[in-house]
């Protein structure tokens, strides 16, 4: 029985009771019937006044605290929780025994997270509720309307109201800090070069942003406008000439990752970890993400580039209609020769060999970050991996995000 049928049944029941009491009073008479009729009228008056309880004009506010490791305001990382506190104010004077509050938020893909709890209003007709969300997957979230429900003491009739407090937050992909990986420098010099790259890259005159002031910076490097606005010493950041241009390519074909959504999430986290590492080392990082809609961020360094890449990775999904080789050939014009390419994929076999050969012919230095299956102890067909390594291309196997630093340093082998 749905809610509308329940309401009709309740109204019919109350009407039948009232008519019976009225007939009893008219035909029976006496003090008992009169008292019963008066009490019933008072109860009906109480039920009718419930419509004017003030719940329809309820107001409120919401405050949420991010229980995560996000480095930016209004962001947290995947797997973290959110503490939410909702303050509710109900106008009027009508007594309310309790109020049920339904609050929640919606993910960018339409998934709804809803929470329900109750409180007893105080003498000021205010109250608050608190709840903690479960660990949240990465994505963009926005809070929906908060619905408040009030019932009479008999629980017969429901009165509702709602208020909206516009707020949103982002859950970024999980990342793992990478140590000083020399793969960027080795990659830009070619697969067989083992020369050590200079850590002191020559700076250009092109301003790339603002950074924290380092002790010993010349006065000519001080960014006076940023220093005046923030009240803290800031220095100009310049682009570097000798740092390699690195392009991250994320495979978004669902079949490559099998039936496990966790493997695609791992691919996204690995890509995000390289972007964070590139920001720390001031490396020009780009991102090619080919799905139903192709997203291309040309290689650049700086906080703004990091923000654009992380915003895309926050809501990306495995919706590519083609395998990685076909996606690469269709995005040929976006890949510039001379850069270092990190291909993040779970594809295997001849398709991967064709992809690496195509990238090599394109004039770039490819490096494969293979997302392995944690349940496959043999790591799939290892013959194609040996063939890739025999041609001098770097290949790293990653089955868990925490293994990425060790895999890059050679402690974990495929």
Write structural notes for this entry.
There is one protein chain. The protein is of the alpha/beta class. The protein contains ten helices and 18 strands. The strands form four sheets. Strands 2, 4, 5, 7, 8, 9 and 10 form a seven-stranded mixed beta sheet that branches. A hairpin with a 4-residue loop joins β4 and β5. The longest helix is centred in the first third of the chain and has 26 residues, at 3-28. It is elongated.
Please describe the topology of this protein.
Layout: H1 3-28, H2 31-49, E1 59-67, E2 75-77, E3 81-89, E4 99-107, E5 112-119, E6 126-132, E7 139-143, E8 146-151, E9 158-163, E10 168-172, H3 183-189, E11 203-212, H4 224-230, E12 234-240, E13 245-251, H5 261-280, E14 284-290, E15 294-300, H6 303-315, H7 324-330, E16 340-345, H8 350-361, E17 365-371, H9 383-390, E18 394-398, H10 404-409
Helix pairs in contact: 1-2, 5-6, 7-8
What's the short story on this structure?
This protein is an alpha/beta fold and 414 residues long. It contains 10 helices and 18 strands. It has helices at 3-28, 31-49, 183-189, 224-230, 261-280, 303-315, 324-330, 350-361, 383-390, 404-409; strands spanning 59-67, 75-77, 81-89, 99-107, 112-119, 126-132, 139-143, 146-151, 158-163, 168-172, 203-212, 234-240, 245-251, 284-290, 294-300, 340-345, 365-371, 394-398.
């Amino acid at each position: 029985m749905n809610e509308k049928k329940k309401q009709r049944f309740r109204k019919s029941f109350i009407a039948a009771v009232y008519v019976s009491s009225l007939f009893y009073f008219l035909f029976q008479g006496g003090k008992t019937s009169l008292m019963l009729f008066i009490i019933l009228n008072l109860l009906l008056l109480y039920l009718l006044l419930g419509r004017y309880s003030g719940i329809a004009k309820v107001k409120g506010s919401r405050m949420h605290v991010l229980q995560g490791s996000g480095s930016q305001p209004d962001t947290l990382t995947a797997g973290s929780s959110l503490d939410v506190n909702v303050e509710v104010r109900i106008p009027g004077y009508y007594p309310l025994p309790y109020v049920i509050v339904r609050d929640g938020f919606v993910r960018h893909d339409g998934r709804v997270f809803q929470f329900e709890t109750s409180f007893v209003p105080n003498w000021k007709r205010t109250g608050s509720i608190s709840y903690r969300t479960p660990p949240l997957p990465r994505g963009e979230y926005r809070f929906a309307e908060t619905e408040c429900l009030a019932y009479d003491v008999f629980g017969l009739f429901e009165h509702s109201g709602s208020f909206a407090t516009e707020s949103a937050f982002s859950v970024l992909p999980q990342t793992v800090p990478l140590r000083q990986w020399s793969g960027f420098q080795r990659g830009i010099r070619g697969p067989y070069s083992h020369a050590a790259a200079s850590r002191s890259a020559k700076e250009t005159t092109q301003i790339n942003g603002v950074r924290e002031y380092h002790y010993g910076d010349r006065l000519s490097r001080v960014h006076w406008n940023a220093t005046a606005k923030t009240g803290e010493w800031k220095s100009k950041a310049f682009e570097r000439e000798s740092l390699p241009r690195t392009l991250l390519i994320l495979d978004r074909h669902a079949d490559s990752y099998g039936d496990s959504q966790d493997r695609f999430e791992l691919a996204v986290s690995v890509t995000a970890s390289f972007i964070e590492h590139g920001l720390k080392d001031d490396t020009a990082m780009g991102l090619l993400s080919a799905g139903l809609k192709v997203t291309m961020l040309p290689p650049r360094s700086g906080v703004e580039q990091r923000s654009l890449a992380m915003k895309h990775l926050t809501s990306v999904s495995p919706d590519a209609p083609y395998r990685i080789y076909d996606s690469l050939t269709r995005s040929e014009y976006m890949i510039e020769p001379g850069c270092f390419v990190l291909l993040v994929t779970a594809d295997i076999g001849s398709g991967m060999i064709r992809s690496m050969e195509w990238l090599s012919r394109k004039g770039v230095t490819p490096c494969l970050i293979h997302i392995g299956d944690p349940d496959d102890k043999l790591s799939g067909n290892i013959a194609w991996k040996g063939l890739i390594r025999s041609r001098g291309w770097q290949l790293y196997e990653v089955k868990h995000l925490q293994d990425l630093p060790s895999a890059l340093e050679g402690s974990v082998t495929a």
